[in-house]
Amino acid sequence: MTSPVLLLLRDPSGATGHDAVAADQPVALATDLGITRGDGIFETITVVDGIPQALDAHLTRLAHSAALLELPRPHEPAWREAVFAAIDAHDEVAEAFIKLVYSRGIEGSGVPTGWVWLQPSADFTRERTEGIDVVLLDRGYASTIATTAPWLLQGAKTLSYALNRAAIREAARRGADDALFVSTDGYLLEGPTANVLLRLDGRIVTPKTDLGILAGTTQQSIFEIAQVNGYPTSYELLTPADLMRADAAWLVSSVRNAAPIRSVDGVARAIDAELTQSINAGLAARTA
Amino acid sequence: MTSPVLLLLRDPSGATGHDAVAADQPVALATDLGITRGDGIFETITVVDGIPQALDAHLTRLAHSAALLELPRPHEPAWREAVFAAIDAHDEVAEAFIKLVYSRGIEGSGVPTGWVWLQPSADFTRERTEGIDVVLLDRGYASTIATTAPWLLQGAKTLSYALNRAAIREAARRGADDALFVSTDGYLLEGPTANVLLRLDGRIVTPKTDLGILAGTTQQSIFEIAQVNGYPTSYELLTPADLMRADAAWLVSSVRNAAPIRSVDGVARAIDAELTQSINAGLAARTA
User: Which helix or strand (DSSP H or E) is residue B218 part of?
Assistant: First the structure.
């Protein structure tokens, strides 16, 4: 078997297919705007027993991010074909992840760069069962930022994630596993690589997606699972006080799935092991 | 001659030298955090008649950015040696630029990636003489951001420049050449790739560098030139009103040098052609 798998799209915005290349073969020129300017977008898709989860939602968001960055529209069938080709090229494993990377390409060329990468996922059993310690970090932006300053690209999943990584380092420095951003006007936003969900007064809730945050594919799947299980769901303006009084809270993302938040800024809070297990089982059982 | 020149550092944080590679040879793996996360830093240095300008200041800022991102400290002599080797490998041209790119490297490897790129510069005669049209854009952050939220990496020159590029597209959409960011509390900050300088009440002034902006190498050189020419210089809290009443204003950066601002949000303002010429001549005459 080949692992990891790397497929280079001949043209990420055209129906021109892809080429398999060795994973240890460099793929980006020194002038690729993806590396010189973080000027591009990505998606990370979890693959369970050979099924790419929420693929439609990921491809839709890729196109949305491309529009926000004014990149050529990704050719959806070409990306979809490469996703399934990557899965076919790999031995079936319980959990793998696929990363779609789409950059503006060589400066001045107008030709974007794109590839699909697949490798087995790390084991997140501990995070999913024992939970994670989270710290709240100021995002520096007001909750209205996506409307007032769209050039800041909030809501696009860009390759410019240096600050997301710095936030996770800051969390580690404070002895925590992850961070949760708060707006300058006091609303819960998102984690550096995850959405936040709460069970609050019998509802499953998450911050409104017009607050300059990413619309989460895993969050959307969990809303569907919750509705099937009789929970009302809603997008709301939520505060750190809501996080503390919620009877369960999670950071949710494509590969780690639902990780219950067991402490916030060092203050312990309850986790619901049974509901978490049920959500993660529901996520793993998705057939698309 | 070889043009452009690309030199790959064997270890950007060690004294291990570099290798010349063809400019059209890919240099970054698909897992390089420089491209997957914009997780790295850069510098752009102008080279006039074979002399890299303000090299010490650029290398100092590279080390400062590395510290803010907790990257291994760049090995200064190795980078300096690669800069001069790149210049030696290229025919002498009137103006060239060198880009230093330093990424965190392959995820999990702990080994950073680094290279030096040199190519002849574009002709900026028009921008330097006729001036540029600028629009003011909200940066979304308060002027205190570098102190209150250091994890946002303001003040580091990172590879995560997607929003800087989006701001320039927004300026173009409004019919302008460039943008100038303003803080949420109403202070002038910086352009997406430049600092702003004003001649105000007989002084040459620029925004304070603790406002979450980059300390500009070109701005520092201009302060030195201004002082020699009898102008007092200072770092101040400046507002859009100061920009409009200043008797001259520039965006200054390493390759374009001083570009006089001839309009702000469509409102014409005076340029000082003689002083601009004198500043740009002073910049071109730097011997280090």
Answer: helix B217-228
